[in-house]
Hints:
By secondary structure, the chain is of the alpha+beta class. About 35% of the residues lie in helices and about 25% in strands. The chain is built from 8 helices and 14 strands. Strands 1, 4, 5, 6, 7, 8, 9 and 14 form an 8-stranded mixed beta sheet that branches. The longest helix is centred in the C-terminal third of the chain and has 21 residues, at about 235-255. The site of (3R)-3-hydroxy-3-methyl-5-(phosphonooxy)pentanoic acid has 13 residues, from loops.
Amino acid sequence: MSSKLFTSSLISETTKFNGNIKWQSPSNIALVKYWGKFGVQLPKNPSLSFGLSEAYTQTSIRFSSKKSAHAKHNFFFEGKENPAFGAKIFQFLDDLDVVFPFLKQLDLWIESENSFPHSAGIASSASSMSALALCLCSIEQELIGSLKLDTDFYTKASYVARLGSGSASRSVYGGYSVWGEFTELTESSNNFAVPFMYDIHPLFMQLRDSILIVNADEKTVSSRAGHALMDIHPYAEARIAQSKQNLSWLMAALQQGDNDRFIEVVENEAMSLHALMMSSKPWYSLMHPNTLLILKAIREFRERSGLFVCFTLDAGPNVHLIYHQDDENSVLQFIENKLIDFCYDRNIIHDRIGFGPKRLD
Ligand code: PMV
């Protein structure tokens, strides 16, 4: 991939322009987890996720030639000006000076909203940063015309999303995607994610993900701080090796329709992520007592029913319950009977594997 893709140019000052771009982009859930980074938001290990369907951000950008010496950027979240989010977004835009030099020539009105409540305990950085990156790439294509090819467009969107939040790099594709260099996937890169859609078994193209909200409070330790603790973690090298072995097994399981291997890898990844937090210096844990009660109930239900049900965890207490579409009725019954009382306010978001971002304007 030519590194020229990751720069752009200014627009002729004599041309006046304006337009409106809108994208919807989903959150994603990692099955092999990215944990630890180096350099400018580069991953210490490769990760694999699938994009969700119902949990997404919609972002629109209205742009026009700047009216004064300094371009004016405005940010509205869910209909209101939001100075805290705005400050982060403006800093991010400033940092993109080399990637999109033309941004300093444009006044921007950015509006963003999530399909899920702010307090649902779902990380919104993947969906919001990928939606913003897609909008910025569409502006480049409209004003400069340098992202005509779909591969160029999505590679650049993934690269830009990554600069905002590592896991956001994987949200620009539907289905499965991989971020981080991995010898068994030659096109993989630390700079951007790539789609992983070769011969995926049909069973794994229809996965359900019911997100059991155990606690919706803001995390006590941010992912940023968690990644940083991996710099001095005694198990860091072993973790990198483990993630590569798990990725290799999971890619094969997805292609072969191997339920047992899928469960083994995905649950091992979730528990390893939380074990790394507990064995960091200083240690911490983002689990809630109910998280463990849910995990135990899932294992017992799987043993009793013989069904494909397993869990993964993000960097937080909420549980993603993963199952096949065909088993939906039995699993929803199980949730109602055994799990719902462990959820905060009986709160569950029923989601599924999704088919990627959509342009809406
Ligand atoms: O993208 P960040 O910096 O919010 O880190 C995300 C880390 C995990 O969600 C725990 C794992 C992952 O790969 O998404």
